[in-house]
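Entry for manganese (II) ion complex. Fields follow.
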Amino acid sequence: MKIDKNHISDHNNGHLDKHRQEFEFLEKRLRDTDHPASKILDNLSKLQIAIPSWALGSGGTRFGRFPIGGQPRNLEEKMADIGLLHQLSQMASRISLHIPWDIPEDVEKIKATADEYGLAFDAMNSNTFQDQPGQAHSYKHGSLSHTDPAVRRQAINHNKEVIDYGVQLGSKSMTVWLADGSNHPGQSNLSKALKRTGESLAEIYAHMPADWSLFIEYKPFEPYFYSTVIPDWGTSYLLASDTGDRAYSLVDLGHHLPNTNIEQIVATLISRGKLGGFHFNDSKFADDDITVGSIKPYQLFLIFMEITQGMAANPHGNPDIAYMIDASHNLKDPLADLLESLESIGLTYIKAALVDYESLEQAREENDISRCSAILQDAYQTDVRPILREFRRRQGGAIDPVAFYREQNVREELVKERGSDSSASGL
Ligand SMILES: [Mn+2]
């Protein structure tokens, strides 16, 4: 669904007086710092977040699913939904596809639809965590790490096929999240499983074009509860290092045990040039996949601080990080929720840009701990919403995307167009 530009202008005009006052106040405050509003606004346009095709419908748990109406029924409609998110937020110009849920039947048509909405294809995602109809071998006991070479062959070939689809669409990267693992102590030879995984990844890597990157995602548990083959960043880093220069680790916020210092992992990976991808979400207990910044917003700020500092220093040439929102929406309207997540990412990115890193570094050298904390708080406590609103206004987006989405009754329109029992493929 495409929004009439005049509707967005009307919305923005209604907010303009108040917005101008708030923006001018903040702009003045930042004018004589090394991070004036103009610089932040320029940098914001480079912050683009991929939306995965599977995050546009209602998710569920193993206990059930409560569908929402108006879900996208095919890839074109998924792109239309992401086009809408991008039109309002100006921050979501990338789509991440999943095979086999999004097999592009007509590549030229899919590319034309992407152009129409101003979208580019981000990382491709393979799936060896489910059996597909008609598949010769089952993944019940693993895929890339399986004991049987025939199962590994099938899983490797599937990953190669995903790369081939991505090449046709102009994607430049591949994400492997491997669900392989075991549920019972003694079930798996842990070191053999890791070795077989490394060999499988090497074959997948060799199939990628020379300008592609491979992202290796890790997760400590789920769907398996005793061991996963790639449980942590260390294992992912090890596999990426063994696999090749264009293989990187991927950090998903929800794929850590409670209270893990994720910002430190980010700092370490960037310092070795090995942080390729980053998946946003938030969680209270495990891989909850809820709205970005809704539970631990300060952690997100500390992560963005490490990214800002790490990418400024960048001793090992870490590439631009591929950002994606990996979320699941069990109760909320997926589109409203994604708009909230984009808002949260934008605001936190700006707050991290406000940190006076020079003074912070000096205070660190002098072991002045209180001063360090004060510098962080000075940035974190700033209300930066006017900058993000101004960014969207200048780019043709909505000053308040979530409010606009509600005012326009977008979900109701989508239900009219697609029906109340439409279903999106995916989890
Ligand atoms: Mn993920």
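NOTE: The chain has one domain: 5-418.
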